Amino acid sequence: MNPLSKMDPRAPLVLDTRELGRRPGSQREVSRTVPAPADLGIEVLRVPEGSPVDLDLRIEAVMEGVLVTGTARAGLEGECVRCLEPISDELEVKFQELFVYADHAVSEEDDEVSTLENDLVDLEPLLRDAVVLALPFQPLCQDDCPGLCPECGARLADDPDHGHEAAIDPRWAKLTALENHPEQPE
Ligand SMILES: [Zn+2]
Ligand SMILES: [Zn+2]
What separation in Å is there between the alpha carbon of 145 and the centre of ligand 1? Predict the structure, then answer.
């Protein structure tokens, strides 16, 4: 009935808060390294599936549930949207979420509220949102990446003086004529 009841306590991103107890104020620090789930990121920049994600978490019992505050660190792989050069980067994101005790939840229909189930919390949606929010929509290999040559597709950052003999840009046509015939009077 409840889709959350599929939560697997052995899943790397499912956290068991049972040892914490329910006394408000009690807290624990948890550090773990988990393999990245699939599709963590955006199409052009993501944490490769299975690569390590380092998590530092503080879990804290509050009146309504369990407050999870964390930092995640992971490697990123992707490609520059202008020149398609591979990009490797590091990402560090912070996140925080209150997981409400199921018996305190106002309504089970309320999708906005994260709930605990059998003292388990699922960190995956939290991690996914934090990572996606932190990524640039248009990752670049360098801020001023000039992209690719529209004529031959060469990567212009590798060859800034790149040009073609048969330049068709009319702004350059005059200059080219001048260079080819230096003796020609102006
Ligand atoms: Zn680039
Ligand atoms: Zn070219």
Answer: 5
pLDDT per residue rounded down to tens, the chain (186 residues): 455 456 888 899 999 998 898 899 999 999 999 999 999 999 999 999 999 999 999 999 999 999 999 999 999 999 999 999 999 999 999 999 999 988 766 665 556 788 888 889 999 999 999 999 999 989 999 999 999 998 899 999 998 888 887 655 666 666 655 666 555 555
Distance 44 CA to ligand 1 centre (A): 12
User: Which ligand sits nearest to residue 154's alpha carbon?
Assistant: 2
- What predicted TM-score, i.e. pTM, was given to this entire model? 0.77
State how far the Cα of 19 lies from the Cα of 75, in Å rounded to an integer. 31
For residue 59, what are the CA distances in angstroms to 20, 155, 178? 8, 48, 73
